[in-house]
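User: Quick sanity check before I run a bigger batch. Here is a single chain. Can you write out its predicted 3D structure?
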Amino acid sequence: MIAFTLNGAPVTTTARPTTTLLDWLRAERLTGTKEGCAEGDCGACTVVLEDGATRAPINACLAVLGQLHGRTIRTVEGLARDDLPHILAQADGTQCGFCTPGIVMAAWAHTRQGGDAHDALAGNLCRCTGYRPIVEAMGRMADDGATAAAFAPAAAEFGDFHAPVTLAAAVALRRAHPQAWLLAGGTDLGLRFSEHREHPTVISLMNVAELRGVAATPAGIRIGAAEPYAALMPLLNGAFASLRPYFARLGSRQIRAMGTVGGNLGTASPIGDALPVLLALDAVVETSVRRLPVGDFLRGYRRHALAPDEIIVAVELPMPDGPLLAEKLSRRHDQDISAVSLVACLGPRPRIALGGMGPMAARAPGAEAALTDHGRDAFRAAAAALAQDFAPMDDWRGGAAWRMAAAQGLMQRLWLRLAHPDLPAEPFAVPA
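Assistant: Done. Predicted structure follows.
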């Protein structure tokens, strides 16, 4: 039986562990949490995970009940004793009201997380487009000081849904169920659960101790495969600072609270935002049995080198040996999947990687060879060389010709970044 704390009270359920939290809440008549897109894009379903003094907004449409066993969740109904919803209303911070519950939950988490209100709101789409008064109201909110019990991971099994807490147990389950889905944060696989697709056995990795943690060392950054992007963001400074606005666009705070680098590797999508970063840095993938360069790990369209009895444990990002620059283009600027992304580490041996240009994220050897210096002509030559490095794919996010032109434009934009380092990176600052 799945058990968790909801709005301060313990609850249990015999619902299927792959039921999304959104579906379960609405079936239980907690209908303040809305379904807008059911794919983690609009934020109407935002709820908050509480863990001690920590508050993390998440998309209830992507989180499944099995992941939430033992955790503490708050929905908009759990704020009824507070005046937070009314602050938005009094400040003309609401419009039709459909999106308001999700915005209120993002705002409640923001009072604890801090940082820029625009960033906090970026994961919530308002269909009435009245963002200015909402941001202003969020800026006036104060932390209510409430805390919750700290989460204590415990191994659990619910039929064909397994939630181990040790790497040994996870590997044993993987060997016993080689076709199982490995579920990290679920920001990709969660879509399949949301769409009620059939699935095999599921092994949730969120609570595996050896897969958690993030640390900066003189050699770079090591991040556990099940550690969310939110934990990585504070370490993106110094030589890694250019990655902070890039990863802020990877997803909203809701997505960054659950999504993982390990999951991005495991899905091996050609438009996975983290993959060009890992390729440009010559990152190393640590699995339960070996270490290998990320370039050897990726094998093709949603294909990788992971064996049926193997689990990604961590990813090591080496310290850049030169300027590190990252750019992406997407149909919507914020919180949208890349159409084309380009990341370059411009050290003595330039490394340039692109996503969205073929069946997998890949290095650009011709462009790398052409970049003999940091002059404008060299960047123009590198941009031209991309035509030999890639035969772009053609899909609804962009045609092949557009993708090539976009990639070449991004290549030349790198020169602008180097020549004019005072250019603003993004329209808002991402919190540390």
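Residues 171 and 289 are 10 Å apart (CA to CA).

User: Great, the batch can go ahead then.
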